[in-house]
Design brief:
Heat Shock Protein 90; rod-shaped; alpha+beta
């Protein structure tokens, strides 16, 4: 007669309105059934008794369930009893519908089948409707109801059940959709949180790579300059060290600007960025830098592009330190599944022995070890070591 564990009609104002509408429809059917049944022809003592019992059970079920349906605790407590009440109602209505002038009770039976299908589920709906059909057919055979009524009355019950089951399926689908939407919303929130954490980690890494190393090396150089000036009074050496500190400050400022551009998505295309890096290196160290592009250029993610640029900058600094005056060649190779940058410079006498194969930090800068860690985060690789008479550094990132 009403909903089971939870009302199907929604919540809030809509729930109250639709609950009133549902109650009104059910009460209207009861009044209509009673009015038609008791103003029609005399059904006989047995038929009258069957009709009175059917109407009484329907009224009692409605009066019992409606107050419970308005309060969730009572609705949950009494929901398991609802199919039994509907079974009693549909059996009584099935018997009454087969009596003389009792066809109108078939509407109440159909309402019971509808409620069983929509509120109790398919199993309860089939069981209740089956009992109603059995009661209708058995009574019809006993009192000699016509064949048309024997077919029509069960069909009305089946139609009520089908509508109720369809309503329940729609309600379940709507509830599942609401759950999926809620899960999708939580997933979007979690993805946004993960993206924010990733962005914070990237910013922290940029700050660490640019400022921590540059400022640390700059502070060390200033301390050395102060010590030399205080203990030796060697102004020439102090000026040389301060010059190095100035160059470090300039390098740190340049790298900071590049990091900010990368965070804003304003990085130059990789070939142009490498060419600019080569020009700056030539002006600063007087070493010729040749940049070669191989393959079809394509856009890389910002993280991958910054990692390649940083690896190139570190390799150039190491070349200036360990092989001053030697030309440097940079080759950017766009491969089918990856992009590789190779920085190669000729080693002077004894330079190879001095450099070894370790990932050293040059002049307090980031170091190839830091660049290797950055590339590993992108599933890339970094290789550095002697190659014949040359020293080669190769950074690779996946496509």
């Amino acid at each position: 007669m009403a909903s089971g564990a939870a009302p199907w009609w929604g919540s809030g104002d809509n729930e109250r309105v639709l609950r009133v509408v549902a109650f009104t429809v059910r009460a209207g059917l009861l009044v209509l059934t009673g009015a038609v049944a008791f103003t029609s022809g005399w059904p006989g003592p047995a038929g009258l008794a069957a009709q009175i019992v059917a109407l009484a059970i329907s009224v009692l079920l409605l009066a019992w369930w409606v107050p419970a349906d308005r309060r969730a605790p009572l609705r949950i407590r009494y929901a398991p009893l609802l199919p039994y009440g509907l079974a009693a109602m549909i059996i009584a209505c099935g018997i009454a519908s087969a009596t003389r002038a009792g066809a109108v009770f078939n509407l109440l039976g159909s309402l019971a089948a509808f409620s069983a299908g929509s509120d109790g589920g398919p199993a309860a709906g089939y069981a209740v409707t089956g009992l109603g059909i059995a009661a209708t057919e058995a009574t019809g055979i006993a009192v000699g109801t016509g064949a048309e009524a024997m077919i029509k009355y069960p069909l009305v019950l089946v139609i009520g059940l089908a509508i109720g089951c369809g309503l329940r399926a729609s309600r379940v689908q709507a509830e599942q959709s609401a759950v999926l939407l809620a899960q999708a919303g939580r997933l979007r929130e979690e993805q946004a949180q993960v993206a924010a954490l990733d962005e914070r980690a990237r910013i922290a890494r940029e700050i660490h790579d640019v400022l921590a190393h540059s400022l640390g090396a700059l502070g060390l150089q200033i301390q050395v300059a102060r010590a030399i000036l205080a203990e030796r009074h060697d102004e020439e050496k102090t000026d040389e060290i301060l010059g190095q500190a100035q160059r470090m400050a300039d390098d740190g400022l340049t790298e900071t600007r590049r990091a900010i551009q990368a965070l804003r998505g304003q990085t130059l295309p990789l070939p142009e960025g490498l060419a600019e890096l080569g020009v700056d290196h030539e002006l600063r160290h007087g070493m010729a830098v040749d940049v070669t592009i191989s393959g079809e250029p394509r856009t890389l993610p910002a993280d991958a592009q910054v990692a390649i640029i940083r690896a190139a900058a570190e390799a150039l600094v190491n070349a200036a330190k360990h092989a001053p005056g030697q030309p440097v060649g940079m080759t950017l190779d766009y491969r089918s599944g990856s992009v590789a940058l190779t920085v190669r410079n000729h080693l002077g006498d004894g330079a190879a022995a001095g450099r070894g194969t370790r990932f050293a930090t040059a002049n307090g800068r980031y170091g190839l070890a830091g660049m290797r860690e950055r590339l590993l985060l992108l599933d890339g690789t970094l290789a550095a070591g002697p190659d014949g008479s040359d020293w080669a550094v190769t950074a690779t990132v996946p496509r």
